C-alpha cells in the first residue's frame, strides 16, 4: 500500500479534538485543557506571561486587570503599571 500525505479536505474530519478553550484570565482561546495552562498568559501561574513586545496579550491582560483593579480600589500600582 502506498501512503499518501493528506492535509486537505479528506483529513479535516480528524480535526475534532479540543486542545484549547477560552482562558478565564486573559479571555483568549489559549487555555490548554490537557496541560491545564494558558499559552498566552500562563494561567494558573501567578505571574502573568506578558512581555512588552507581545502587545496583544500585554495590552489585553493589562486592560482587564486595570478594570478589576479600578473596581476593587482606585489606587494604581506604579511599579507594575497596572
Ligand atoms: Zn490566559
Summarize this entry quickly:
The protein has 82 residues and is an alpha+beta fold. It has a domain of 55 residues: Single Sheet (N-terminal domain of TfIIb).
Please, could you describe this protein's structure?
The chain has one helix and three strands; from the N terminus they run βββα. By secondary structure, the chain is an alpha+beta fold. It has a domain at 18-72: N-terminal domain of TfIIb (Single Sheet), CATH 2.20.25.30. A hairpin with a 4-residue loop joins strand 2 (31-32) and strand 3. The mean pLDDT is 75. Residues 23, 25-26, 28, 30-31, 38, 40-41, 43 line the site of zinc ion.
Give a short account of the largest sheet. Answer: 3 strands, antiparallel
Helix content: 10-25%
Low-confidence stretches: none
Q: Structural class of the helix and strand makeup?
A: alpha+beta
Mean pLDDT: 75
| Total helical segments | 1
User: Which shape, going by the Cα principal axes?
Assistant: elongated
- Count the E strands: 3
Distance between the termini: 60 Å
Mind telling me which CATH architecture of one domain this is? Single Sheet
Oligomer type: single chain
What pattern of helices and strands is seen along the backbone? EEEH
Are any ligands bound, and if so which?
zinc ion
CATH topology of one domain: N-terminal domain of TfIIb
What is the CATH class of one domain? Mainly Beta
- DSSP strand content: 5-15%
> Order of strands in the sheet with the most strands?
1-2-3
Rounded Rg:
19 Å
Strand and helix map with partners:
Layout: E1 20-21, E2 31-32, E3 37-38, H1 55-72
Amino acid at each position: 500500500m502506498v501512503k499518501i500525505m493528506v492535509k486537505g479536505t479528506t483529513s479535516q474530519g480528524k480535526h475534532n479534538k479540543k486542545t484549547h478553550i477560552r482562558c478565564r484570565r486573559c479571555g483568549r482561546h489559549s487555555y490548554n485543557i490537557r496541560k491545564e495552562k494558558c499559552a498566552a498568559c500562563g494561567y494558573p501561574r501567578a505571574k502573568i506571561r506578558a512581555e512588552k513586545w507581545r502587545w496583544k496579550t500585554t495590552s489585553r491582560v493589562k486592560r482587564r486587570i486595570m478594570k478589576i483593579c479600578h473596581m476593587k480600589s482606585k489606587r494604581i500600582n506604579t511599579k507594575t503599571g497596572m
